[in-house]
Amino acid sequence: MSSESRCPICQTPLAGERETREYAPFCSSRCKLVDLSHWLNEGYRISTPLDDLSPEDDPTLN
Ligand SMILES: [Zn+2]
Questions:
Q1: How far is Cα 5 from Cα 48, in angstroms, rounded to an integer?
Q2: CATH superfamily of 1-47
Q3: pLDDT at 15
Q4: Percent of the chain residues topping a pLDDT of 70
Q5: Tell me, what's the pLDDT at 42?
Q6: Residues whose beta carbons lie less than 5 angstroms from ion ligand 1
Q7: For residues 29 and 46, what is the distance between their CA atoms, to the nearest angstrom?
């Protein structure tokens, strides 16, 4: 069993060096930005259904 951690973006094994730990759990600032962009994209997807409420859920109709 190995406790070796890998970058979740590019699957590069993290050597545990100070340089890589700075961006943990990613191997570099580039992968960190890639993950951040994924988060932002998911955020847009999650917020989209809020504009798709059915009329029954509209409180102004009560
Ligand atoms: Zn990486």
A1: 34
A2: Erythroid Transcription Factor GATA-1, subunit A (3.30.50.10)
A3: 74
A4: 56
A5: 84
A6: 7, 9-10, 12, 27, 31
A7: 26
